[in-house]
Write a structure and sequence with these properties.
This protein is an alpha+beta fold and 490 residues long. 26% of the residues lie in helices and 26% in strands. Residues 3-41 and 327-332 have low confidence and may be disordered.
């Protein structure tokens, strides 16, 4: 981690309560013989969003967030931000595949004022309570439906379940100037749109954001044009809710080309973020290094937006980086290294996503190890120094925070899920050698692109690709309370 069209028309409250027969409709003529119904094509062709199909699972770390009862295929979000009143107005259209029969649909959502909710075009009763939106309409397993939610209100954040000093509350944050930004790992997308806010349910996205003249709106995905003051973005690759982003401000724009001509866009605030521009411009260099190690960048575009945070987040295709850095050269150098870390997540975590937060190590371990390898290579550090750093750090973090494979829900994304699995990957690297290790790393992200994975699938992958049994090594490194001794894999 860290880490459209404007909505003008609001449905009347009466519509949200349900639908009734139209008294002005003509009565049926009893003398007219009934006709045989002619089968018609479905009103909505859901095959267009099959790339957003997932197999959601209940998350054991944060069971109150998300559900395994539904699979969102596609989010179409049209939002409008009014800085003068700090009001967000939205229309969210969700294409949903129910996983099982249910009397209603339940999604995570901040208690905005509901202006109208429809299911397949029919108004339905809906309410928000305890950060859950419940639309009262029965659904049938594997019969997709379209839910439209219109709403408005003032955004609010939600607490971050961590003791880290470099993170703020989660979700849509309003700046003192009237802008917006968000970081939402492990949850917080629900602070600006109704969402199945858990990592196993990835979906496709279309996002349109309308802002006043002079303001810029930035979101994840590939830029899809601008009409007036409405900015559009599209994600043709599935995205987990925690990897979506939104930022509104008075931004400056820079463009560049990455490896193989991948378009890159950088957004920064003139004056406030000037010191960071040289690091933004190093993005093609960071991506070229990562491609050499792990294969082609997995998305059609990339970029960075700088916000008022002390952290960074690997939001998909548009990284959200905090601009609050100490005014020292050492800290700025670390900012560039952290940016490379977030770029590494585009492969590890974004393209290949964990099934649940139990396996956060699968994201952070790989990104941290990539960052360490880059630092070792650019600073010409010895292999022995890297080994010593990882082992000493591993011992201290396990003692303080416990093993990385058993995360504490109250200590999300703390150091043990970064460095300890990086130390495990270092051990695997040492045992298989450079050539085999990078073949494995490349295959892990390239062959399983746009999938959700977990510990069991990672072990199975290692064992199958190497012909050796890494089960004990991986389980020991993930579950041991102390730094494991070397486990030789035959």
């Amino acid at each position: 981690m860290r880490h459209r069209v404007p909505l003008i028309l609001l449905l009347a409250p009466l519509l949200a309560a349900g639908c009734t027969a139209d008294p002005a409709a003509p009565a049926a003529d009893p003398s007219t013989p009934p006709t045989t119904p002619v089968p018609s094509a479905p009103a909505v062709d859901y095959t267009a969003w099959q790339a957003g199909r997932s197999t959601p699972v209940a998350d054991k770390v944060y069971p109150a967030r998300g559900t395994d009862a539904l699979d969102v295929l596609h989010y179409d979000l049209a939002v409008e931000w009014a800085p003068s009143t700090r009001t967000l107005t939205g229309a969210a259209t969700l294409r949903i595949r129910p996983v099982r029969d249910a009397p209603n649909l339940v999604l995570d959502f901040m208690p905005y004022q509901l202006d109208g909710v429809t299911l397949d075009g029919t108004p339905v009763t809906a309410a928000v309570a305890r950060e859950k939106l419940t639309a009262s309409a029965p659904v049938v397993a594997d019969k997709p439906v379209t839910l439209v939610v219109r709403y408005h209100g003032r955004p609010r954040t939600t607490p971050m379940p961590s003791h880290r000093k470099d993170v703020e509350d989660l979700g849509l944050t309003v700046t003192k100037e009237g802008g917006l930004w968000t970081m939402q790992e492990p949850f917080g997308a629900f602070t600006w749109y109704p969402a199945n806010d858990q990592p196993a349910d990835e979906a496709l996205y279309d996002i349109r954001v309308t802002v006043p003249a002079g303001w810029t709106a930035i979101a994840g995905g590939t830029p899809a044009g601008q009409s007036g003051t409405t900015f559009s973005y599209r994600s043709a690759d599935p995205v987990a809710t925690y990897l979506t982003t939104l930022a509104v401000g008075k931004y400056q724009k820079l463009t560049a080309k990455g490896p193989r001509g991948v378009p890159l866009t950088y957004w920064y605030r003139k004056g406030a973020d000037d010191d960071l521009v040289p690091y933004l411009k190093k993005s093609p260099q960071y991506l070229a290094w990562l491609e050499k190690k792990f294969g082609p960048y997995p998305f059609p575009s990339g970029g960075v937006v700088v916000v008022d945070s002390a952290s960074g987040m690997e939001t998909q295709q548009m990284i959200t980086m905090g601009g609050k850095i100490e005014d020292t050269r050492a800290r700025r150098d670390r900012w560039g290294s952290d940016l490379l870390h977030e770029y590494a997540h585009q492969w590890f975590g974004n393209s290949v996503t964990p099934t649940s937060w139990t396996d956060l190590w699968l994201n952070e371990g790989w990104a941290k190890y990539a960052q360490d390898l880059y630092t070792q290579e650019t600073l010409k550090l010895s292999a022995a120094s890297l080994d010593r750093y990882l082992r000493e750090g591993d011992a201290a973090l396990r003692k303080k925070l416990g093993p990385p494979g058993r995360p504490d829900p109250k200590r999300f994304a703390e150091g043990n899920v970064y460095l300890c699995p990086a130390a495990m990957l270092r051990e695997i690297h040492r045992q298989v050698g450079d050539k085999t290790f990078f073949v494995l790393a490349r295959a892990w992200v390239q062959d399983q692109r746009n999938t959700q994975q977990d510990r069991a699938s990672f072990i199975a992958f290692l064992n199958e690709r190497t012909g050796r049994d890494f089960t004990k090594l991986v389980n020991t490194w993930l579950d041991s309370k102390t730094t494991p001794k070397s486990i030789k894999v035959g």
